[in-house]
Amino acid sequence: SYAAETSSALRLGVPPQPRSGSCSILLVTHNGLAYTKLCLTTLLAHWRDGDELIVVDNASTDGTPDFLRDLAQKNPFVRIIFNDKNRGFAGANNQALAAAAGEFLVLLNNDTRLMSDALASLLAESATWSDRAILGLPHLSPDGRLVDRGSRLDLFANPVPITTADGTPPATLL
């Protein structure tokens, strides 16, 4: 099975082969249970079959580990990595990236609330890329104001504009 192949590959230090069109959504937590619940509620409300969620918990002490265990038990597409100490944001993201099997890698902060079509918009935008790139989605304030237009970097980390002629983000990304 795919899960057995992926598990075996990780033990051997070989990254899993990406599944075409699938997303690996990667989330790092360290306490912040209320934020994590909100983030995952908005994410799971619009879940796509074939995607996976990998959460790396950096030794939370506020009930987050119990919540994540319950979440993984109820959802077979959820994998949790529990660290016995806080390895930091970058270290935990690297752990998640090493375990990811999706063609597209989506890194989220646990205080993120996704709009209903955020992943679909991300994938639609990626279809316009000539090669792999990094996309930073626009950020909205709690009252809906645009805070950051987002950004896209090419393979060499050069900025690529993702705004329309009038300077606003494309509708597909909002």
Describe the structure.
- Strand 8 and strand 9 form a beta hairpin.
- The chain has 174 residues and is of the alpha/beta class.
- The protein has five helices and nine strands.
- Helices cover 31% and strands 26% of the residues.
- The termini are far apart.
- The protein has helices at 2-11, 33-44, 64-74, 88-99, 118-126, and strands spanning 19-29, 52-58, 78-83, 102-109, 134-136, 139-140, 146-148, 151-153, 159-160.
Give the integer mean of the pLDDT values.
76
Terminal CA distance reads: 37 Å
What is the 3D shape? Answer: globular
Give the SSE order as H and E letters. Answer: HEHEHEHEHEEEEE
Largest sheet: 4 strands, parallel
Helix percentage: 25-40%
Kindly name the structural category: alpha/beta
Question: What is this structure's SSE topology?
Answer:
Layout lengths: L1 H10 L7 E11 L3 H12 L7 E7 L5 H11 L3 E6 L4 H12 L2 E8 L8 H9 L7 E3 L2 E2 L5 E3 L2 E3 L5 E2 L14
Parallel strand pairs: 1-2, 1-4, 2-3
Antiparallel strand pairs: 5-8, 6-7, 8-9
